[in-house]
Amino acid sequence: MFDFLPTAIDGCYEIRTRILTDHRGTFTKLFHSGTFKDKGLIYTFSNADYLICPEDAISGLHFHPEDEKYALLVSCINGSVLKVVVDLRRHSKTYKKVFSVKLDSSSGNTLYIPEGVAHGFLSEASDSALITLASHPTTVATRKGIHWRSIDFDWPVSSPVISEEDQKLMPLTEYENQFR
Amino acid sequence: MHYIPLFAGQPYRSIRQTGIVGCYLVERTTRRDGPRTLSDLYDSSALLQVGIDFPIHEVLLSTSGKRVLRGLHFQSSPHSTAKLVTCLSGVVFDAVVDLRRKSPTYLKVFTTRLSGSEANMIFIPEGLAHGFYAYEKSTILYMTSGVFSPRHDSGILWSSAGIAWPDANPIISERDQNLVRLEAFVNPF
Question: What is the DSSP letter of A152?
Answer without folding.
Answer: S
